Amino acid sequence: xxxxxxxxxxxxxxxxxxxxxxxxxxxxxxxxxxxxxxxxxxxxxxxxxxxxxxxxxxxxxxxxxxxxxxxxxxxxxxxxxxxxxxxxxxxxxxxxxxxxxxxxxxxxxxxxxxxxxxxxxxxxxxxxxxxxxxxxxxxxxxxxxxxxxxxxxxxxxxxxxxxxxxxxxxxxxxxxxxxxxxxxxxxxxxxxxxxxxxxxxxxxxxxxxxxxxxxxxxxxxxxxxxxxxxxxxxxxxxxxxxxxxxxxxxxxxxxxxxxxxxxxxxxxxxxxxxxxxxxxxxxxxxxxxxxxxxxxxxx
Length: 299
Description:
The protein is α+β, with helices and mostly antiparallel strands. Helix content is 30%, strand content 18%. It has a six-stranded mixed beta sheet with strand order 2-1-8-7-9-10, with helices on both faces. The chain has a four-stranded mixed beta sheet with strand order 4-3-5-6, sandwiched between helices.
């Protein structure tokens, strides 16, 4: 059985099935310590944006400040001295990030800026540039494993700070890049795997039969696992979650709540179409799936 993707991958988005980013977002419940994450973000916060300010010197301090303010209003993204703080500020404010990874003499950065800026307008994202050769960039380069990737690269970071996808600037349109921003449920899922936690996914609506029992069973399993797992309840009818639902091969009109177990390695190990037993859920989180190489030889 193939591994469920949980690290960012290089994407050629010529054919993406993810719903439009303008679709309504349903609530996503995440249970590790009974945390509830709302689906959707608040208004844009200009303070979270990063800008590139340049131009000729001005004769007075006042006119220089005015020029800087006017340039900033046009939202031209830039590289900041502390990219880690910039990313943290943007995601804390609830915005996804398009991180433009560059280095000296990178070709194609203008295209990366243009595509990212246009996509950011669609999903209310923040565009931040990173020169991976700069000493101040080291924490971000290490965090997202950017040491050897080809540049320029656009890294899509979800609003919870997890890397969700990466692409070459010339491989996508702005619309395709916008669709790479994960839904709230998928972002939570990727975040849990990034923390080496198993994930218990419950697909249901508020009225789906078995929803309450499935969630209670998952919560009991998480307790037995001493927090080494997370329960995520995905709304079956939320338009924004349709892509994630299809990725997990779940029909929108299921007769009862469906529970999927993914171990900490990102391997899907079990699916329950009825109320699961907590012990079975715990066992499934510990199960490892053999990974087969071409020719049928397994590791």
